[in-house]
Amino acid sequence: MLVSFLFLFLVGSYENYRVNVETVKISPYPVTRSGNADITITGYTARISDGSVVELTIAKASAGDPKTSSIKTYNLCDKVRCPIRPGRFSFTLSKIFSNEELKGRIYVITVRIKDAKDTSMCVVFLCWVTDDGSTSLIRQSATMMELE
User: CATH number of 19-130: 2.70.220.10, 3.40.50.1970, 3.40.120.10, 3.30.1360.40?
Assistant: First the structure.
């Protein structure tokens, strides 16, 4: 099932990124405490620098600033065939939550593609993990994206 969400405004605009995200798929959806989640991001790019990494940050949502729970870094070439050519591409981050994180409630998930100089992509969304399911909101730079 494809569900559309309106993205909240993020500082800057998506034109500032070299990757335009088309879809973010959370699987399984909804996320439950008895499982884990994979995230698949599909988008388009004009170019992504060699040596880029994917950074996944999971932070506990709170009344103030989110409290970082974990940061995981992946070599982008371990997730997609390199060199990345202009056009459509997709990658999956598997089993993103630790067992401890699955005990939590609400998380701010940030997925970035970056190199030593700058960030090519940044997607931020909320994920509620409950006993019976989750609801997620995703945002990227004043765009409309879809959540499968």
Answer: 2.70.220.10
